[in-house]
Amino acid sequence: MSDQTSPARERWGSKIAFIMAAVGFAVGFSNVWRFPSLAYEYGGGAFFIPYLMALLFVGIPLVTLEVSLGQYHQTGDVGVFGSIHRRLKGVGLGSVIAAWVLVTYYVPLIAWVVNAFFDSFRNASIWQDSNVNGTAAYAYFLDEIVGEKTLGPDNLPTRMVWANVGYVALTWFVVWLCLAWGIEATGKVTYFTVGLPAILIFVFLGRAVSLPGADSGIYAYVGKWDMSGLVQRPECWSRAVSQIFKSVGVTFVRATVCIYRFGNCSNTHNSIIISVCNSLFSFIAGFAVFAGLGYLAYFEGLALDEVAVSGPSLLFGAYPVVLLTLPGDSAFALTDAVITVTADSVPGAKLSRKLIVSGWCILGFLTGLLYATDAGFVFLDVFDFYINFLIVSYIVSVGWIAGLEQQCEELGPKTMLAYISTTFGSIITASGIWFGIPGDGVWSGFVTWFVLYLAGMAVTIFLLKKTRDSMPEEQQKSWKELFYILYFKNVQDYVEKMKKQIGYLPFIWGVLIKHVIPPILIVVFALGAVATNSEGQSVFGHYGGHVTWPYQVLGILAFCFTASTMLVGFAAPNLYNWTFVAQVEGSFVGTDEKFPEAEKSLSAEMADAAKAMAAADGESMAAATETKVDGEA
């Protein structure tokens, strides 16, 4: 056994640096261009009802899950999920691949903003024209900044936009500077990358509300409360949930941000702070954007609904300057997730951090050249759509797989198979009726869900009774105990195991993670999977009306590659042993003598077992040596 030891895990310099990095990771373009447009589309202030419910029952619990996993296991996503169950290493690796796909287009998006910023100082720039309207500004951004003016009707790439090549290189160089010297240096950068945008957003808000017509925009944003949309347009609820996923950055390796924790702290409090700060940024940015829209409508003499109020045009056309208020920490966090998994792997353990960071930044630049073509915005749109289909597996891993083997031992594998099939089969069937059958199938779906669940639970209870009857009388558990084991025990045991390191987690958190959030995710996934475009075609495979090659093909390949990575890990987990050095070397990545009480996790238990094996090997070698010496004598 090798005596190689992984270096101690670094720490954030302070709790504030950790919070700011986590908030910076969550806040991004979706907060500014998607949230306000959804509020406008679905009843103004009325949209805040489903949004706040999604934040409370989905967003905060999931952020708490990611923060807890990172701080408890003290390793990247592969180590985290491999520690939950060896067959889940593929889920961790898949989430890192998805994060890498995301960062390869997030950095070019920042590069376009940097390009627009420097372009605004040129005398010939459209931004110098005080009479420019939103439509012209958006067209200028796409044609001149992104470079789409040379695209043909099929939107196929025709050239490299060399200015964007340079800005992509510059942005990746900044990412390298912020990551190469370790997390403590990155923490210091967050004071600027999060603090300055927080100040600027208030500056722009103050300017926007002082402009004529701003009041009409703000009224459309929060003053109008059309409650009918919550009933007549039920998709607004799924849109609110999907916005929570996009805005708080759920499932995209926040756990890696949290492995460098600052001492022992309450994860529940931290998660609430991170989630609320993120939503507040969306809310305040919405005021700035819609005040600007109101001014544009006043300036152009148009009604507000005739001005761009959705998608990128909302931002790049109506209020391009607000882009400069967005933190770039998402690029840091996503890249650092890949770096951490690389450093924790068997090959990566032999490399220095600077070398790993340099390698990934160079690869990121080369991949970013795809987005530096004149069709870069189209590639971004396609990859962003397809890579977001991989959420469900991440959550199910903790709620249902953790502790599953022990549940099978206590209740019987047939009982657990029946229970899992009932829970997921009923909601999947109902989703098929809701979204797959033409017509109004809302009540039919609910009835099907209810009937199938009752029938499945009847089978589960029958098998549970057989298991109970087979136990010796003195070992028989009460029905209350059996149902607790069935519904709650695995998650609550996991919470109890983590409690010493992560602090208190309420009982309701485990209930939400296991029984509330997975069905919601399945419904959202089904809604996206069966959505159709204006021509009645499935959006999956025909997204945005873009041509099949290269756009749909590359997007689907990215999805399939990531999904297959997860499935291969489940079927053949030993293929991924190289991805986590602690499994091979017997050393726990991240051990730090300054925080000995915080380092005990499932990974640490693996290290303890490895040390015991090493001790046994040492005793055997000593005995063999003594025997050899005796023989020579």
What is the rounded distance between the termini?
A: 30 Å
Structural class: mainly alpha
Q: In one word, what is the shape?
A: globular
Report strand %: under 5%
What order do the SSEs take from the amino end to the carboxyl end, as H and E? Answer: HHHHHHHHHHHHHHHHHHHHHHHHHHH
**Uncertain regions: pLDDT < 50 for 5+ in a row?**
1-7, 321-325, 583-614, 616-633
* Total strand segments: 0
Q: What share of the residues lie within helices?
A: 55-70%
Number of separate helices: 27
Mean pLDDT: 80
| CA radius of gyration | 26 Å
Biggest beta sheet summary = none
Structure characterization notes:
The chain is globular, with a radius of gyration of 26 Å. It is built from 27 helices and no strands. It is an all-alpha fold and 633 residues long. The longest helix is centred in the middle third of the chain and has 34 residues, at 267-300.
